[in-house]
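Predict the 3D structure for this chain.
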Amino acid sequence: MKEYLDIVDENGNPTGKTVDREIAHAEGVPHRTTHLWLLRKKDRAVQILLQKRAEIKSSFPGCYDISSAGHIPAGDDFVPSALRELEEELGVRAAAEDLIVCGDRRIVWDDRFFGKDYHDRQYTRVFIMWLDREEKDFVLQEEEVGSVRWMDFQECVEGVKSGGFRHCIAIEELMMVKRAAGI
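Done. Predicted structure below.
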């Protein structure tokens, strides 16, 4: 089934036109996504939940990534989409007031997957949410998520900077999370 996305302007505002997700990535059509990072305080340190992408994913299989993320379907908005993805991917129900906005990012990224050009043009709203839940208590969407792991926030930052673990995490986004969380 085709997934349609709103085409957006440079400020992330829908233009009134939609595009199939595959075409958006083939042609570099701007669209919106949400990124939601889960945080908790444990042993006097802040930890961040990393999602390990399922091995069947077409992009970055088996890499650590954002706690929960997704494309925003046409006609939807940032907060409802972030909450839906959180429930679908990790089995966590939350309310809009649980989300803290870190800010917006424009992502421009070109690559090649399975012999096809991939041109990503995302307008992304980044959120954090505090949640103290053990890894075993998340209900994972198997086709998206292989596992989850809590990691000390500073260890995550150092690992992303040094390439200390397989990931597809942008350091700029972790710095947005750090500022919003007051770490």
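The chain is about 20% helix and 40% strand.
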